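Lecture notes, unit on protein representations.

Consider one protein chain, 288 amino acids long.
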Amino acid sequence: MITRIFILLCLGGLFLTMPVYSQLERRLESASQEVDLTFHAPRQINLFTVEPLDKGTLHFAIMHTFGEVDSGVRDLFGIDNGANIQFSLEYGLTDKFSLGMGRQSRDKVYTLYGRYHLLTQTQDNRMPLSLSVMGGAAMNSSDYSFLIMGEPSFSERTSYAIQWMVARKFSNKISLQLSPMAAYFIDPNPIFFIEGDQNLYTALGISGKYKLTGKTSLTAQWIGNLNNNLRNNLGLGVDLEAGGHVFQLYLVTSPFLNETYLLAGGNGVPGEQFRLGFNVNRVFGYSR
């Protein structure tokens, strides 16, 4: 029953009333226009953002974390070990709704997700913030044939996530976002690469951007757990726009990139067990 309610919550968040027009392109602005480029890309460090995709555009992202930097110079501060990689593709079906899929190398997790943009901040503050929602389902495809009790079933390998994004661009330099989040595992099996042992995980993400130049920003995120004793997630980084790409370099406490594992997985001690990570974002479009 809990599983059905959670799945309906995810789907309902995606298909609520849809009265919004959004854009990523830089355009001439007026007082009545919607605010654009609250963030540099649809993703920032680990979290989704309120940045939409135009209809017919494709967002390709490569996300990568390494081992802990305190492993020392012999392991080149974690680059030699502990790597986790995720590739994702997200396509704009309309100017406000997009579907995506991704694969995380750790536990070989496949994810299907959708994002919908409900509200967009306007420059005259008639709408003071932007509001988006993401809902997704994930499946662990690792080989567990070595288990004496048998492999987990397809259902036991699945997990679900929802993330709300509430953001405001305060100025050309400062943007902030709150991200209430939840993840649900059908079976939080200890054999999976997660530290939690419960079905439902809730958290509140806080992320921000401070623009240094027209194409460079400092970024930060904090994902605080609300219903468990796992360590919280901390990330500090920099975004760089170059040649149509958005490169994101950061230090983060979590090795995970998938939305459900991000909440149920472990985090290192901030300042002691950071991991070097990077994202490469590219949006492919067409001329209408």
